């Protein structure tokens, strides 16, 4: 499975008056990790579009376990778990210092033809090529 991680120092503008990260910013953090993961196999958003496909998010789920706080270093890890019919990724956000789990998430994206806007029911061949796997 493909995986990528990045470390973020929680900035002041992401927290509320209690110095806790506002819940919506976790989505930004997992988007950053998703882009990092896609770059590991050279299939980031510009490459997707250049190959005639758009990949909208059709499902996004987050489970908030504990709060991230101002100045805390967090590690966001994205793991590709499905790619044959959709791109499904699992995420974990953890405190760098303690390894405490802060948030778990899952996202699902489907391929859409850029020109026709029709959803594809299988991932395009380019996904398999970039991942170096064969269709099953």
From TrEMBL:
The keyword Transcription regulation is assigned to this record: no
CDD domains (alphabetical): 4HBT (cd00586)
Listed InterPro entries: 4-hydroxybenzoyl-CoA_TE, HotDog_dom_sf, YbgC/YbaW
Pfam family, one: 4HBT_2
Gene Ontology molecular function: any one: fatty acyl-CoA hydrolase activity
Keywords associated with the record: Hydrolase
Protein name: Thioesterase
Organism in which the protein naturally occurs: Idiomarina zobellii
